[in-house]
Amino acid sequence: MNRRILEEKIFKILMLASVFIVMGSLVIIIGLVVFNGGSSLTIEMFTQTSGGGYYLGRGGGILNAILGSLFLALPATALACLIGLGIALYLQREFTHPRISAFIRLSLDILWGIPSIVYGIFCLMIMVFIGIGTSLLAGIIALTLLEIPIITRYMDESIKMVSIELKEGAYSLGSTKFETAVKVVRRQALPGIIAGVLLGLGRGIGDAASILFTAGFSDRIPGSLFDSTAALPTMIYHLYASPYPLVRQRAYAAAFILVVIVLSISIVSRALSKRYTKFVIR
Amino acid sequence: MIKKSDIHIHIETKNLNVYYDNNYVLKNVNIEIPTKQLTAIIGPSGCGKTTLLKSFNRLLDLRDNIKTSGEILVDGENIFDSRVDVPDMRKKMGLLSQKPYPLPMSIYNNVAYGLRIHGKKNAKELDSAVKHYLQEAGLWNEVKDRLHDPASRLSVGQQQRLCLARAIAVEPEVVLCDEPTSALDPIAAQQIEKLLLKLKKEYTVVLVTHTLRQAKRLADHVVFLYFGKVVEQGPADEVFNNPKDPKTKAYIDGDIS
Ligand SMILES: Nc1ncnc2c1ncn2[C@@H]1O[C@H](COP(=O)(O)OP(=O)(O)OP(=O)(O)O)[C@@H](O)[C@H]1O
Ligand SMILES: [Mg+2]
After folding, report:
1. Does A171 touch chain B (CB under 8 A)?
2. Which of B49, B54, B64, B97, when mutated, tests ligand 1's pocket best, judged by the most ligand atoms within 8 Å of its CB?
3. How many Å lie between the alpha carbon of B172 and the closest alpha carbon of chain A?
4. Which ligand is nearest to the CA of B177?
5. Which of A24-28, A50-54, A145-149 has the lowest mean pLDDT?
6. What angle do CA A174, A175, A181 make, to 5 degrees?
7. Which residues pair with B230 in a beta bridge?
8. For A41-277, CATH number?
9. Parallel, antiparallel, or unpaired for β B77-78 and B66-74?
10. Rounded to 5 degrees, what angle do the CA atoms B8, B9, B10 make?
């Protein structure tokens, strides 16, 4: 056989194998979660908070963790978006010298790589210092810090990609830098920004380590920012640590719910992204 | 015959020099652009036409690697003066670029954007202004039923006319055009040329072009740029029919390009 055709065949097989590994894992994970958790997936899981029974978790549902996750991740993502947009705009050359921006980008990339447990410990230290301790607020702060580098770098990259000619068009109409950034560049970059926000939200809602020490754990729905709260990842962690198979099953059910939430976020953001992509100028 | 004293100078450059990094692009450029006439800047590719045009409203400021010296006087005022309000100065100069770049929003908002940022907010007023400027740009009939479609869905020729509409919507005094027909088919190009002829009655038009025939059809005044230097400038018929510099003659005869 011709060497070049062989090369191409091998390359194709490698590509397919890579795709198969990823898709296979996804199918297995979902299968595992549904198979193990399906029988525990009752209406009570969604409507009741955790009951007592066997060491936390045999009775009741996990409503407190579902709501806890949303109360933690949504405000954290909103905060991270606000702060991230500020930093991302500041990084553009209209506002800051490229050398300073390069340094900040490097710092953000380092922050991105820091394990989430470190953010957790850092926030716990601050909270203890202020005298608050584990609370919804502490968890929100930890998640915000965790999400900022992701969201900021995505926003930054998609804003940076906006062509200079498009900006020239806006400037030549007499726009200020601020108007150009917020009204024109932001629209052009929106699909990329949405992708970044989704990624940040996904990371925030799925992370256990950063909220373990900060949000703590509770079997009640938090009543204020200063209450401790459960979240799906920490709930899974606690349930699966149980010696009772019945309780471990419920961990799978919780995981299933988390997967469904992440999937819904993904679908919504895709729809949003599509809606804004049609305005993008190429 | 227009007497010299009747001509008002709208834009004037004095010893303008521009460098990209170490590349010396505009060399001691001294030109005068008369009010409410169409001035064509001609010259071979890479001679600095776009750079010269974009220096008039300080769009070059957006680039990192650029260095400028000299003066550009618009209505007698140096635009490099630190007291100049740059957005306000740019508002007086509409831009039509080589490839149209509409704003990433609807057709309607492309025209309304400039009106809004300069204070016009009333919905009725906006509606009628948008209609007016789209009509001026000869685009109204084609888009009146889909004003809220994304501008990105228009054809290139329509996008170019939309860019013209948005430019004149902020009521500039000058319209800067950088080869505005080079990305268009002949019919769309003809539409733009007609519009430019109409515009020059009300605005000072500066047209960069590398097609001599277009310059001959449209220009009242011509600046010939060659390797970053102004070789010749003057009324169109003089430059085309009676060039003083042998290089101009060679360019017009097609001997250099
Ligand atoms: N961003 C840039 N960085 C560095 N050099 C540049 C840049 N833009 C243009 N130049 C250089 O400056 C010179 C003049 O460019 P300019 O675009 O003004 O020419 P032009 O006359 O408009 O050419 P054309 O007819 O091809 O559009 C060219 O030599 C070009 O290589
Ligand atoms: Mg050019």
Report:
1. yes
2. B49
3. 9
4. 2
5. A50-54
6. 160
7. B225
8. 1.10.3720.10
9. antiparallel
10. 110
Of B212, A81, A163, nearest to A171 (Cα)?
Answer: A163
A94: left (phi over 0), alpha (psi -120 to 50) or beta: alpha
Distance B257 CA to ligand 2 centre (A): 14
Record the pTM.
Answer: 0.83
Residue with tokens 């993904």: A266
Pocket of ligand 1 (CB under 6 A): B 20, 23, 25, 45-51, 63, 65, 210
Which of B18, B19, B51 is the pocket-test mutation for ligand 1 (most atoms within 8 Å of CB)?
B51
Which are the contacts of B81, defined by CB distance < 8 A and separation ≥ 6? none
pLDDT band per the 50, 70, 90 thresholds, residue A24? very high
Coil/strand/helix, residue A225: coil
**Cβ of B186: how many Cβ atoms within 10 Å?**
8
In whole angstroms, what is the distance from residue B23 CA to residue B37 CA?
A: 32
> In the prediction, which pLDDT does A38 show?
85
- Ligand with the closest atom to the CA of B47: 1
What pLDDT is recorded for position A56?
57
How is residue A8 written in tokens?
Answer: 């191409």
Whole-angstrom distance, CA of residue A3 vs CA of residue A101: 47
- Evaluate whether ipTM surpasses 0.90: yes
Contacting residues of B for A170, CB less than 8 Å apart: 103
Q: Record the tokens describing residue A163, joined without a space.
A: 């062509």
Return the CATH number of the domain spanning residue range B4-252: 3.40.50.300
Domain ranges of chain A: 41-277
